[in-house]
Structure formats: C-alpha cells, structure tokens
Specification:
123 residues; binds zinc ion; mainly alpha; 2 domains
Length: 123
C-alpha cells in the first residue's frame, strides 16, 4: 500500500496525483526521491589510470563500451600494423594513446555533469 511521503497517510491504490490529506503533489515527491538515488559520480582519476594501462578502459568504465572497445581494437590494429612496417606508425600510436586518455577524462567529466544535472546516467 503506498503512503504519502509528506504526511504518512495511506493512499488509495493507484496513487492519486495529490494527497487527499495534506494536498502535496505525489508526483513531485516521487521525482524528488528519484533524484535522491542518482547514480554515484565516476572517478576521473580512475578513468585516466585504467585508460593509461589498457587503452579504451576509461571509456568502458564510464559506460561507453562500444567506444572503449573501438579504441582498444584500433590500438591493437595499429600495433600489428607498426610491427609489419618497421615501426613507422609509432607517432600515430602515441597520438591515439594520448587522445584516448584526454577523451576518457572528458567523457568522465561529461558523465558527472549530466548525473549532477539530471540524476540519471547520460548514455
Ligand atoms: Zn499527505
């Protein structure tokens, strides 16, 4: 049986939009409760550290699995290609490596900003 979170009175099922006892809007209270259980913030430091160890892991940590796996496979492909071409792709690998670290940092910042603003995960 649902009850009014404001005054505690039992409500008829299904809940009305307003509490018949105190007149508080039930919907507003439900939304306020929802944002109270917002997902926790993600650690930017952790995203960058795991991304430094395994490229793409920072993106996977923040919930962008496809992007993270794409980066990981790109890095593997670049390593294979550079072994086959006498290491001429090393500068490209370094550039992609640094960019994916910056990306992990920015994605985590965006994630935290969105969670703070809307109370749900952005993607
Ligand atoms: Zn009430």
């Amino acid at each position: 049986m649902p009850f009014c979170p404001s005054c505690g009175r039992l409500l008829p099922d299904p809940s009305p939009n307003f509490c018949p006892n105190c007149g508080k809007a039930i919907l507003t209270i439900a939304v306020a409760q929802q944002s109270a259980i917002r997902p926790p913030k993600k650690s930017i430091l952790f995203a960058v550290v795991v991304g430094a160890i395994i490229p793409g892991m920072g993106q996977i940590y923040v919930g962008k699995e496809d992007r993270g796996l794409g980066i990981l496979f790109l890095m593997i492909a670049l390593w294979v290609a550079t072994f086959l071409t006498a290491f001429i792709l090393i500068p490209v690998i370094i550039a992609v490596y640094l960019l994916q670290l910056i990306d992990a940092f920015l994605q985590t910042m965006n994630y935290n900003k969105y969670v703070k603003k809307y109370g749900t995960e952005p993607w």
